[in-house]
């Protein structure tokens, strides 16, 4: 008489295997992402306070310059605020935030695809969500309505933008350094090893007249000017005092002005006639087209 060999190991029963499997699944979210004290502390804050303390809890020190830290902080803060709107208990807060962290952990370290993450979420929700088994009713964290709401939230928050999070973790980005360099030139003097402070500065005219010694070339030019000064100044004064209209009568001035005015008017009249001719030709062309039509 043959006996069929079952898959149950020696010394174990199907019920024992089921209990072992349940214990393994319960360990999935056993490590809390946020402690009970941290969650209680966050619930006392407003939106800005939650964002600030969440960044401190996550040890994000470069939020102003690191795009990755800013995106991750927004991911966790948005999830916490959504859970706050659902009025979760402290335990539910802990499991939900751990669930958010584990989903990113699977993507970042295990390189889980979108399909694998959805399957993993289904397995986890089957353990921490509602179940028909009365034996494990005390282990359930969320009811049916809350479990469905969590799945819907993850659809629009993580799964809908899954490719963007993959790009965040696995794509290298060039670091763009934005800065400017200014070169300031200072006057180097032979008397002092360092320039004078700006607060002691004076205008260039005063400095060149009373402080800076004149150069040799300037002294020579000044001597030549003094030698030629009387004659040169006398000739300039004579030229400036001379009337430019000396030798012309009023009739001569009128004649010149009339000739200049006539030349200007002729040029203007010629330009006006040319423009009128062009417009006349354009109107004639339009009239011919209207007649043909």
Secondary structure topology:
Blueprint: H1 14-26, H2 36-43, H3 47-57, H4 67-85, H5 90-108, H6 114-128, H7 144-157, H8 162-170, H9 204-211, H10 216-241, H11 250-292
Helix pairs in contact: 3-4, 4-5
Supply database-style keywords.
293 residues; mainly alpha; 11 helices
Protein described:
By secondary structure, the chain is mostly helical. The protein is about 65% helix and about 0% strand. It contains 11 helices and no strands. It has helices spanning about 15-25, 35-45, 45-55, 65-85, 90-110, 115-130, 145-155, 160-170, 205-210, 215-240, 250-290. Helix 3 packs across helix 4 (about 65-85) and helix 4 (about 65-85) packs antiparallel against helix 5. The longest helix has about 45 residues, at about 250-290.
Query: How many β-strands, per DSSP?
Result: 0
Return the structural class: mainly alpha
Whole-number mean pLDDT: 76
Order of helices and strands: HHHHHHHHHHH
The count of helical stretches stands at 11
* Terminal CA distance: 112 Å
Unreliable stretches covering 5 or more consecutive residues: 1-12, 20-27, 132-136
Portion in helices: 55-70%
Shape: elongated
């Amino acid at each position: 008489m043959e006996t069929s060999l079952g898959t149950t190991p020696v010394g174990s029963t199907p019920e024992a295997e089921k209990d072992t499997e349940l214990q393994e699944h319960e360990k999935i979210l056993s490590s809390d992402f946020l402690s009970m004290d941290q969650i209680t502390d966050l619930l006392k804050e407003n939106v800005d306070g939650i964002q600030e303390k969440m960044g401190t809890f996550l040890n994000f020190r470069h939020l102003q310059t690191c795009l990755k830290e800013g995106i991750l902080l927004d991911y966790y803060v948005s999830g916490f605020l959504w859970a706050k709107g659902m009025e979760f208990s402290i335990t539910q807060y802990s499991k939900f935030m751990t669930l958010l962290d584990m989903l990113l952990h699977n993507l970042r370290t295990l390189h889980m695809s979108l399909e694998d993450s959805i399957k993993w979420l289904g397995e986890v929700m089957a353990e921490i969500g509602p179940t028909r088994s009365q034996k494990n009713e005390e282990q359930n964290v969320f009811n049916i309505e809350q479990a469905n709401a969590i799945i819907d939230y993850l659809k629009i928050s993580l799964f809908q933008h899954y490719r963007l999070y993959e790009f965040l973790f696995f794509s290298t980005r060039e670091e763009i350094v934005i800065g400017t360099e200014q070169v300031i030139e200072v006057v180097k003097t032979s008397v002092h090893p360092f320039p004078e402070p700006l607060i002691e500065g004076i205008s260039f005219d005063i400095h060149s007249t009373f402080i800076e010694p004149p150069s040799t070339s300037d002294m020579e030019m000044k001597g030549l000017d003094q030698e030629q000064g009387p004659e040169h100044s006398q000739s300039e004064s004579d030229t400036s005092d001379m009337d430019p209209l000396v030798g012309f009568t009023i009739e001569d001035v009128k004649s010149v002005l009339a000739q200049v005015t006539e030349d200007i008017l002729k040029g203007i009249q010629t330009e006006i006639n040319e423009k009128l001719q062009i417009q006349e030709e354009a109107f004639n062309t339009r009239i011919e087209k209207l007649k043909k039509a």
